[in-house]
Amino acid sequence: MFAGFVVRKGETLVGYVDSCPHAGWPLAGFAGRYLTRDNDLILCAGHAALFRIEDGGCVAGPCPTSARLTPWPVAVRDGQIVTA
Asked: Pick from 72, 80, 77, 43: which is nearest to 60 by CA?
């Protein structure tokens, strides 16, 4: 089964596979949230790792700073989000 999510930051739209690169579990947890309260970083609810929205790079938490979320290709066509 595939699980992914899409985040928009300004005009940038990005998609990622819903899996923590450190632990392999889904990022959102029970609350269903993918972003921090300030909506500026992606949060792993399991262990509070933080990832940049733009490129999925880890910026804090137990994952190494070289860790990244796995991208999931998305685009907007005719006002609709489509995936590859």
From this structure: 43
The CA distance from 54 to 47, in Å, is 21
Write down the pTM of the prediction: 0.89
Cross-strand partners of 42: 35, 51
Q: What is the pLDDT of residue 22?
A: 83
Residue range 5-64, pLDDT digits in tens? 999 988 889 999 999 988 888 998 777 889 999 999 999 988 889 999 999 999 998 888
CATH number at residue 28: 2.102.10.10
Number of domains composing the chain: 1
- For 68, the domain range is 4-83
* Residue whose entry in the numeric block shows the structure tokens 């990622």: 16
Exposed/middle/buried for residue 18 (C-beta within 10 Å: 0-12, 13-18, 19+): middle
